[in-house]
Write a structure and sequence with these properties.
The protein is an alpha/beta fold. The protein contains seven helices and seven strands, in the order ααββαβαβαβαββα. It has a single domain, classed as Rossmann fold (3-Layer(aba) Sandwich). The relative contact order is 0.17.
Length: 240
């Protein structure tokens, strides 16, 4: 019962801080685009701190944190892996589902930092628009983050890797940094309850440009799944 109450307090304060920062920085962001990134990163760092204090959920980043223009392909288990990534990267922007662009104020700020909305329900058209959007935004280098499985996947659940990541990899001609995680063990896809423990996001060695689509997808999936399974096993997970 206590864990549930603390989780409720944590979630409530997290969204209150989110709303407060967004409202305070929106006028500034109208004239300075960097304000959107500034408050979003502050929110992510505060969330990590308050999770440790209120619910005993520590978070750790392993591997070399990338900088500059790279493609990041990350395992996505819950909102918390996005929070951790944003808290440590210097110029992150996400491939996000189109509906998020219409969230009042938050969607506008996401677009201000360079996030790219796509319609996941129309895969072929979404990939084409994704590539075009990335190409048109090439003047703003940074870390472009995509979730290869397209959505949050609970620990222990198998889901296919989608070819949109390979399309971006080929179009951009950049290294791709795979990312594994175990955060879903402590912060679920849905619901209030959060669990104490050590949530880890791991940046893996880069995949050099130039692989064909089948080779790239096989390498990407193998690396991300091996890392995520190892991190979950380290945290005591023995399967769904």
């Amino acid at each position: 019962m206590l864990r549930w109450v603390l989780s409720l307090i944590f979630v409530a304060q997290m969204y209150l801080v989110l709303i407060a920062l967004m409202l305070v920085f929106t006028p500034v962001a109208l004239v300075w685009r960097g304000a959107s990134f500034y408050w979003m990163q502050a929110f992510c760092r505060w969330t990590r701190i308050s999770a440790r204090i209120l619910i005993g959920l520590r978070s750790e980043v392993r591997g070399t944190i990338p900088a500059g223009a790279v493609l990041i392909a990350s395992k996505h288990q819950s909102f918390f892996d996005s929070i951790i990534l944003f808290s440590v990267l210097d110029a992150p922007r996400f491939i996000m589902k189109k509906q998020l662009a219409y969230v009042p104020l938050a969607g506008w700020h996401a677009l201000r930092i360079g996030c790219i909305p796509v319609d996941r329900g129309k895969r072929g058209a979404a990939i084409k628009r994704m590539v075009e959007a990335v190409a048109s935004g090439a003047q703003r280098p940074g870390q472009l983050i995509i979730y290869p499985q397209g959505t949050r996947i609970a620990p222990g659940v198998a889901a296919p890797y989608k070819v949109g990541t390979a399309a971006l990899y080929a179009q951009l001609g950049q290294v791709c940094i795979p990312v594994g995680t175990n955060v879903g063990l402590f912060w679920p896809r849905r619901g209030i309850l959060r669990k104490p423990g050590l949530a880890v996001v791991e940046f893996l060695p880069p995949i050099a440009p130039g692989l064909n689509t089948p080779a790239f997808m096989a390498e990407l999936e193998a690396r991300i799944e091996a890392s995520s399974l190892a991190l979950m096993a380290e945290a005591g997970f023995r399967g769904a």
